[in-house]
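Lecture notes, unit on protein representations.

Consider one protein chain, 192 amino acids long.
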Amino acid sequence: LERLVPGLQSPDTLLRAASLLLDRIRDGLENENGIKSILRAIAIHAEPHPAITEQVVQLVYFCEYPSVIVDVMAQISGTSEGEVNLIVNQFKELLKGDRELLVPILGSLADLTLPQSLRMESFHLATAALSIVDEADLPAVVRTLLIQQAPDIRLCSPSCYNELEMQLDGPTLRKMVLGISIAHIWEQRLPR
């Protein structure tokens, strides 16, 4: 890892160094901590590149620890529409097969720069997740809700709030968290 990190910092060797590191994950040579170290090094030292994003997205299917990859996806990827769409589409596919990745995916979606259409899709996914996630995961879900609405909070339709309010039939902690979330969203909508 130490020998390849300098290669991540040079545009001439970036793709080669990243590919060699990702090959270690693809070949199953790393445990969970090793995978985290490699992905962290790429996130910190490499400029985002579509080829690297594509390789990392593909790793989710080969890796024994897909949540580790999902967690760092937003830090490794660029912000181009193509890269973001690739990631979101892969997340949708992952959710079809493994609902345990819901909270890590929501967290990663909150960190991505999503276009309006995908922000609304992420908002609806997070809203639906409110009724099924563990209470310990509620902060991550609410964070996604707030972040996905924050850029256009004044433009959010009443249906967004109705969707959240419908979730208020859950347990007390859920009601409290949702109530605070709805109040925050409404407060942001008020003219100053």
